[in-house]
């Protein structure tokens, strides 16, 4: 979350832009001092505001005793979900391979079908003996990470059994 946002002007304007931003970037573990120079600020100024929850891309600047993050890009949560998520992973325990399992799979297919997109889906099945089968579902079941209902999938599979992934091999 962005806090303590201060807009300032540089002494020398480059390309006609002199406005830049200083702010703190906070998470549950602490806060970091940040600066966003005019070239980057002009592109993302609508996202640089007090109490904004977002993702940032930055480099560490160590010119002073206390490091400062030089922010070069800001994303909304929705943009981050679309750009940074590489897969949807679902874990399912098979009961007996019978009608109940088929109904679960059909329900999953229905939920995925309502959120078509570009994101690959991985299904990890575990049988009664504890053996795993990991599979990547077909292109017709790719989803949009911002519209797929994780809550609906967890209703079918159980809490904590559906995760978004950032690795291409389907591991959350």
Q: Could you explain how this protein is built, in words?
A:
- With 172 residues, the protein is α+β, with helices and mostly antiparallel strands.
- It folds into two domains: 2-80, OB fold (Dihydrolipoamide Acetyltransferase, E2P), CATH 2.40.50; 85-165, no CATH class.
- The chain has helices spanning 38-44, 77-84, 99-113, 150-157, and strands at residues 2-14, 17-27, 30-36, 55-61, 68-75, 87-93, 116-119, 121-126, 132-136, 162-165.
- The strands form two sheets. The chain has a five-stranded mixed beta sheet with strand order 1-2-3-5-4.
- A hairpin with a 5-residue loop joins β8 and β9.
- α3 (99-113) packs antiparallel against α4.
- The longest helix has 15 residues, at 99-113.
- Residues 168-172 have low confidence and may be disordered.
Provide a quick synopsis of the model:
The protein has helices spanning 38-44, 77-84, 99-113, 150-157, and strands at 2-14, 17-27, 30-36, 55-61, 68-75, 87-93, 116-119, 121-126, 132-136, 162-165. The protein is α+β, with helices and mostly antiparallel strands.
